[in-house]
Every structure is written in structure tokens, then in C-alpha cells.
């Protein structure tokens, strides 16, 4: 699933390729993603120009003046910028035709979102209104300390909760915990403030390094940026997806266990 670094990588490529271009055509299929794609809602974008591309957590906002497209890649979504008239890949639910380029939104598993909202009312979009601060924004340390103090839930669950901090998924929550030396199963409420501060720093460093590497493309080849390129952060992963392999710090075997229905990876020696 694309997380903050992958979505930021896509944001940067969309921004570089499409900002300043006018929408000259649009084709939206009425499919059920996380929410229904309403073809009629996309037609008012015709003739507008893309002003900027923003990111909030894992959401992308394409701002066309008074209207904005709210996009989420879900589990398997891809946004690809292609030449006009390029063939449609399977599961392409939305095509925005710009002057000189097309944007294709593909989503085989259909957990993504694609909605049009008035820009002035973005604060009312339910999916956006509930988000905590972006994981790269200021103040992550404070919200983490406050959220951890309120719960006995495992610390990884706190990191995955988009209402606490927006943008982390299993890969980067796992890697931040490894860097901070904290076991994913550790009850959040029992963690000392200094360890949570170290975790906040680890979140920032792992996200910034992953963005610099263009995101993480696992062996399933899932993630591609808007130009169809893979990201190179997978080689830097310390514990994620490395069950039985040596921890990159101490050489102990990385362990995996099921936690909240999703795999948790950790080094039994470095993470306490
Ligand atoms: Zn280790």
C-alpha cells in the first residue's frame, strides 16, 4: 500500500508534469471504489487549469482553482502521466486529458478514492477532516506523546491510526520503530517520553530518506511513480519483510508476528 513517501513521490511528479496545464477532456467510469466515482462531478473540471498538487497524509489534492480532486491510492492505486492517446491499462477508472498529457488513475483492487469537491469546502471532506497532523509536519512529537498516554494499545497501532498522525502505514511504522529500538507490540501508554521523542525523530528520518529514494517498491512490484518508475528504498529496509534474515544492526534473526491482523517485524535484540 502506498504510504506517505510513495504518495509524496507521486505528488512531486504530478506537480512537475501537470501544473499549469488545462483540462481538455475527462472520462470517468461509474465504479465503486471506497466511494462511488460520479462521472458527472468530473465534467466541471473541463477548461480549468491545475494550479497545484498538495498532499495530506496519504491523500492527494489536485487543486483546479475553485474545484479540487481528492485522490487516494488505496491498496493498489496508481496515477500515471502518459502521452495523449496512450492505451488504457486495465482497471483505469478515470482519465483526465490535459493539453499535451493525460493522467490515468488505475486501481485493480478498488480501495482508492477519486472525488471532486469545491476547494473552499475541503475542510468538510469526511476522509480529510478526521486526519491528524501530517507525519512530516511540525508537532508530531506532541501528538504522539498525548496519544500514547491515552492508550494501552500497542505502539504500532497508534502509529497506524491516521487520526493521530497521517501518512504512516505498516512499512514506515515498522521501520521507525526499528530505528527507535521499540518493539511494535509494546503498550504505548507504558513508553517513556524520551523513547517517544526518539520515535518521533525516527519517523521523520525514515520518511525523508524514503522520499529521497523515490519510495519503496516491494518485490510484488506494486508501487510506481507517475512516470512508471519503481522506488529504491526497499534495499534500506531494516526489518520490514525480513523475517529470518539478519537485523542490519546486530545480525540477530528478524522475527515476525501477527499483530492486529497485519505482520509486525522486529529485531528481538535491538527492539525492547
Ligand atoms: Zn538487531
Description:
- It is built from 7 helices and 10 strands.
- It is an alpha+beta fold and 272 residues long.
- The chain folds into 2 domains: 4-129, MutM-like, N-terminal (N-terminal domain of MutM-like DNA repair proteins, Alpha-Beta Barrel), CATH 3.20.190; 140-266, Helicase, Ruva Protein, domain 3, CATH 1.10.8.
- Strands 1-6-7-5 form a 4-stranded antiparallel beta sheet.
- A hairpin with a 2-residue loop joins β6 (92-98) and β7 (101-106).
- The chain is globular.
- The structure holds zinc ion.
- The site of zinc ion (ZN) has 7 residues, from loops.
The CATH class designation of the largest domain is Mainly Alpha
Alpha-carbon Rg, integer: 19 Å
Compressed to H and E, one letter per element, the order equals HEHEEEEEEEHHHHHEE
Number of strands: 10
Instruction: Give me the CATH architecture of the largest domain, please.
Output: Orthogonal Bundle
What tags apply to this protein structure?
26% helix; binds zinc ion; four-stranded antiparallel beta sheet; 272 residues; N-terminal domain of MutM-like DNA repair proteins; 2 domains
Summarize the structure.
By secondary structure, the protein is of the alpha+beta class. Helix content is 26%, strand content 21%. It folds into two domains: 4-129, N-terminal domain of MutM-like DNA repair proteins (Alpha-Beta Barrel); 140-266, Helicase, Ruva Protein, domain 3, CATH 1.10.8.
Task: Please outline the helices and strands.
Blueprint: H1 4-18, E1 23-28, H2 39-42, E2 52-56, E3 59-64, E4 67-72, E5 78-82, E6 92-98, E7 101-106, E8 113-118, H3 126-129, H4 140-149, H5 155-160, H6 170-180, H7 193-212, E9 255-259, E10 262-266
Antiparallel strand pairs: 1-6, 2-3, 3-4, 4-8, 5-7, 6-7, 9-10
Helix pairs in contact: 1-7, 4-7, 6-7
The structure holds zinc ion (ZN).
Amino acid at each position: 500500500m502506498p504510504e506517505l513517501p510513495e504518495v509524496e513521490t507521486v505528488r512531486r511528479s504530478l506537480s512537475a508534469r501537470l501544473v499549469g496545464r488545462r483540462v481538455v477532456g475527462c472520462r470517468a467510469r461509474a465504479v465503486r471504489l471506497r466511494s462511488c466515482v460520479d462521472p458527472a462531478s468530473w465534467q466541471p473540471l473541463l477548461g480549468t487549469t491545475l494550479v497545484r498538487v498538495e498532499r495530506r497524509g496519504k491523500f492527494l489534492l489536485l487543486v483546479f482553482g475553485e474545484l479540487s480532486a481528492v485522490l487516494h491510492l488505496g491498496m493498489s492505486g496508481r496515477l500515471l502521466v502518459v502521452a495523449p492517446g496512450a492505451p488504457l491499462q486495465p482497471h483505469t477508472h478515470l482519465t483526465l486529458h490535459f493539453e499535451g498529457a493525460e493522467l490515468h488513475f488505475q486501481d485493480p483492487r478498488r480501495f482508492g478514492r477519486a472525488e471532486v469537491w469545491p476547494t473552499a469546502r475541503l475542510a468538510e471532506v469526511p476522509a480529510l477532516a478526521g486526519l491528524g497532523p501530517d507525519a512530516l509536519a511540525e508537532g508530531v512529537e506532541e501528538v504522539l506523546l498525548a496519544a500514547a498516554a491515552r492508550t494501552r494499545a500497542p505502539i504500532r497501532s497508534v502509529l497506524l491510526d491516521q487520526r493521530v498522525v497521517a501518512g504512516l502505514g505498516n512499512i514506515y511504522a515498522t521501520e521507525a520503530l526499528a530505528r527507535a529500538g521499540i518493539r511494535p507490540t509494546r503498550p504505548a501508554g507504558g513508553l517513556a517520553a524520551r523513547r517517544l521523542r526518539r520515535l518521533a525523530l525516527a519517523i521523520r528520518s525514515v520518511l525523508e530518506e524514503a522520499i529521497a529514494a523515490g519510495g519503496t517498491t516491494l518485490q510484488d512490484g506494486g508501487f510506481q511513480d507517475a512516470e512508471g518508475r519503481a522506488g529504491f528504498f526497499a534495499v534500506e529496509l531494516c526489518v520490514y519483510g525480513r523475517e529470518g534474515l539478519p537485523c542490519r544492526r546486530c545480525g540477530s534473526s528478524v522475527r515476525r508476528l501477527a499483530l492486529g491482523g497485519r505482520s509486525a517485524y522486529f529485531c528481538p535484540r535491538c527492539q525492547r
